């Protein structure tokens, strides 16, 4: 039971980090109708910038804040110089162009920081465990990640649902042409949304850096899961991104705990340990297929 509780907390933590990636991705796709495969590269830049700035600044928080602002600036510059020319192109052209940006981003990181993975240490204040009762010891840093993820989700909801800028975002996601007719500056809105998405990527990269390896290409694998979250939640929907990310996070982490145990009752321990993680990964896509069969537009689509 303690292992299941710990896995559930890990699922919530991983799901909230997926939400930070998927929120920007779903807004970019929903408002701009833009498939941006380079979204994961911004996550990688956020992690690398944080790792590079921790030592000179002497503060994880300060390094993270600077990395967030720098990554947001990189994202907005990228939108204004490169991606803006792709809005009128078909999705195949967008996929090819943004895939090229992935390759360019990986090589830029290699040139600046080298090919070897970088170590991003845990903040000293959150390096120990917390006693949750019932004999459960859980890392305090993972609880911090959960708290930050929930706070960002709440803040993003308030911005999107309660502010004028959020009204423009919702209008653009629902009907871009009508929003333009009503006087919304779509070009400025696109830049703002892309910058926000890049900032959220940096938050996820900085927070996951101490838990995962900060290395070249780290954004590609997690980008696939972010797209799965967008499809499950519904394109353009922040609420859908949150629901989908928590579902994917829970299925992934809890599945990696329960599936090998279940297989261990039938197969040998070595077969169960090798087969279990693979089947747990497959469960994510089974979940996506089930949701699409039930609701083809996702759980909370912004349009329609």
From TrEMBL:
Any Pfam family = BPD_transp_2
- Cellular compartment(s): Cell membrane
Keywords assigned = Amino-acid transport, Cell membrane, Membrane, Transmembrane, Transmembrane helix, Transport
Q: How does it sit in the membrane?
A: Multi-pass membrane protein
Q: What domain of life does the native source organism fall in?
A: Bacteria
Q: Which family does it belong to?
A: Belongs to the binding-protein-dependent transport system permease family. LivHM subfamily.
Q: What is this protein called?
A: Branched-chain amino acid ABC transporter permease
- Source organism of the structure: Pigmentiphaga daeguensis
């Amino acid at each position: 039971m303690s292992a299941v509780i710990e896995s559930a907390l890990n699922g919530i933590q991983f799901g909230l980090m997926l939400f930070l990636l998927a929120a920007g991705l779903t807004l970019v796709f929903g408002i701009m109708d833009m498939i941006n495969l380079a979204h994961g590269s911004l996550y990688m830049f956020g992690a690398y910038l944080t790792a590079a700035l921790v030592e000179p600044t002497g503060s994880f928080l300060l390094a993270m804040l600077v990395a967030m602002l720098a990554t947001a600036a990189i994202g907005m510059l990228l939108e204004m110089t490169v991606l803006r020319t792709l809005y009128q192109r078909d999705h195949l052209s967008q996929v090819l162009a943004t895939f090229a940006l992935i390759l360019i981003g990986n090589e830029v990181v290699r040139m600046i920081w080298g090919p070897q993975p970088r170590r991003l240490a845990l903040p000293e204040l959150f390096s120990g465990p917390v006693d949750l009762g019932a004999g459960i010891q859980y890392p305090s840093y993972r609880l911090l990640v959960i708290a930050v993820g929930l706070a960002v989700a709440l803040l993003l909801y308030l911005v999107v649902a309660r502010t004028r800028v959020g009204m423009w975002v919702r209008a653009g996601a629902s009907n871009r042409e009508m929003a333009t007719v009503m006087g919304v500056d779509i070009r400025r809105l696109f830049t703002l949304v892309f910058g926000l998405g890049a900032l959220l990527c940096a938050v996820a990269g900085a927070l996951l850096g101490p838990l995962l390896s900060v290395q070249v290409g780290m954004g590609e694998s997690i980008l696939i899961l972010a797209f799965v979250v967008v499809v499950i939640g519904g394109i353009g929907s922040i609420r859908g991104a949150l629901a989908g990310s928590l579902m994917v996070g829970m299925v992934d982490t809890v599945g990696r705990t329960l599936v090998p145990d279940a297989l261990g009752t039938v197969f040998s321990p070595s077969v169960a340990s090798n087969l279990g993680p693979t089947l747990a990964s497959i469960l994510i896509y089974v979940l996506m297929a089930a949701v699409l069969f039930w609701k083809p537009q996702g759980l909370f689509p912004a349009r329609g």
